[in-house]
Amino acid sequence: MVTATNVEATAVNTIAWLSEASTSIVVPVYQRQYRWDIGGCEQLLGDIRAVSGSGERHRHFIGSILSTSGDDGTGELVLIDGQQRITTLMLLVAALHHSVRETDPQLAAELEQVLVRADDPSRTKLRPHRGWAEIFESVVLDRRSDGDALRDSRFDDNYAFFRSQVHADEAPRIWSGLQKLEHVAITLGAEANAQQIFESLNSTGEPLRDHELIHNYVLMGLSHAEQSEIEDEYWLPIEQNTGESIGSFWRHYLVMTTGREVVVAGERGVYDAFRHEFPRLDLQSLREHAAEWRDYSAVYRTLLEPQRAPDAGVGRHLAHLNTFGRGMYPLAMRAYGDFAQGTTDAAALVATLEDIQSLLLRRTVVGITTDRMVARLCRAREDGPDALVRAIARITPSDERVRVALKYSELPHAAYVLGRIAGVDSAVGLDLEHVFPLLPGDDWTGDGERVWADYSDDEQNSHRALAQTLGNLALLEQPLAERAFDRSFPEKRAVYAQSEVSISRALAELPAWGTAAIAERTVQLTELFLAVWVRPGSAGIDDDDLTPILDATRRRGWPRGWEREFDYVEYRGEHWEVYDVKYLFNRVFKRLWADSREAVVRFSAGRGGPIYQTQAWNGHWDVLDENTHLYMGWDSKYMLTAVQGVLDEAGLAAEVFVKYSYFGAVM
Question: Which residues have CB under 8 Å from 353's CB, separation 6+?
Answer without folding.
Answer: 314, 317, 318, 320, 321, 332, 335
